[in-house]
């Protein structure tokens, strides 16, 4: 069954705790937390202190996507804040492999990701060291962008690698995900869909989440 990870970037931040409860009660599998530092990407969002404050509202796994430079500096902070998995960018400055190793040393799941223009082979050196690959189908740093069609082959590439080497590898997709694009990503090999506005614009996201969880090669639109 496809996993659904609502992106909290699209929630009402004045009610973050309540929005996390809403996400959990709607049947989501993870809460996706977009952390931006104003350097790797131009925008700023929130950091470990906010995540720590929000942690007591829900038991849903926290999946942190660090859009920050030299992420190894802050991995321990996000682990202590209550994150269950942390994903870092291949394009970020610093020792990215050291960040992956530190995430594992702290007992968390480690993920690797890249922006649409980056060659998929930049993932190769990390694939046997991570638990999650996040395929960005928009450029990191902004919500509400249009889905990049050229990223579908990246999903297929990682899926083929996983079938040959690590069937348990999670393949997540983030950016412009809705009913149509989500179904196509699952058909290409993704098993986790990250979505923001397509879910949070709904008064009740539970039916949409239930629909998406049923996506697969033979699912109807």
From TrEMBL:
Q: Which UniProt keywords are given for this protein, alphabetically ordered? A: Carbohydrate metabolism, Cobalt, Isomerase, Manganese, Metal-binding, Zinc
Q: Which SUPFAM superfamilies match?
A: Ribulose-phoshate binding barrel (SSF51366)
Active-site feature positions: 34, 174
What Pfam families does the database record attribute to this sequence? Ribul_P_3_epim (PF00834)
Binding-site list for substrate:
7, 65, 141-144, 174-176, 196-197
Q: Name one GO biological process term.
A: pentose-phosphate shunt
Task: List the GO cellular component terms.
Answer: cytoplasm
Give the note describing cofactor binding and stoichiometry.
Answer: Binds 1 divalent metal cation per subunit.
Q: Required co-factor?
A: a divalent metal cation; Mn(2+); Zn(2+); Co(2+)
Q: Name the HAMAP family for this protein.
A: RPE (MF_02227)
Annotated function: Catalyzes the reversible epimerization of D-ribulose 5-phosphate to D-xylulose 5-phosphate.
What's the protein here called?
Ribulose-phosphate 3-epimerase
């Amino acid at each position: 069954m496809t996993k659904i990870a609502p992106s909290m970037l699209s929630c009402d931040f004045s009610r973050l705790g309540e929005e996390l409860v809403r996400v959990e009660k709607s049947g989501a599998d993870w809460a996706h937390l977009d952390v931006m530092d104003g350097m790797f990407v131009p925008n700023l969002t929130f950091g470990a202190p906010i995540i720590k404050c929000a942690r007591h509202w829900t038991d849903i796994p926290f999946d942190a996507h660090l859009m920050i430079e030299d992420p190894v500096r802050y991995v321990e902070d996000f682990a202590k804040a209550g994150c269950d998995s942390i994903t870092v960018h291949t394009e970020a400055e610093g020792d990215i492999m050291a960040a992956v190793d530190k995430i594992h040393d702290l007992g968390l799941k480690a993920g690797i990701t890249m922006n649409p223009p980056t060659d998929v082979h930049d993932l190769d050196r990390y694939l046997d060291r991570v638990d999650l690959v996040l395929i960005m189908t928009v450029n990191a740093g902004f919500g509400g962008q249009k889905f990049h069609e050229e990223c579908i082959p990246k999903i297929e590439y990682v899926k083929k690698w996983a079938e040959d080497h690590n069937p348990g590898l999670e393949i997540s997709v983030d950016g412009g995900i809705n009913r149509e694009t989500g179904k196509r990503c699952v058909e290409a090999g993704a098993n986790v869909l990250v979505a923001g506005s397509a879910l949070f614009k709904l008064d009740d996201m539970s039916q949409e989440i239930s629909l998406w969880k049923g996506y697969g090669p033979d699912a109807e639109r």
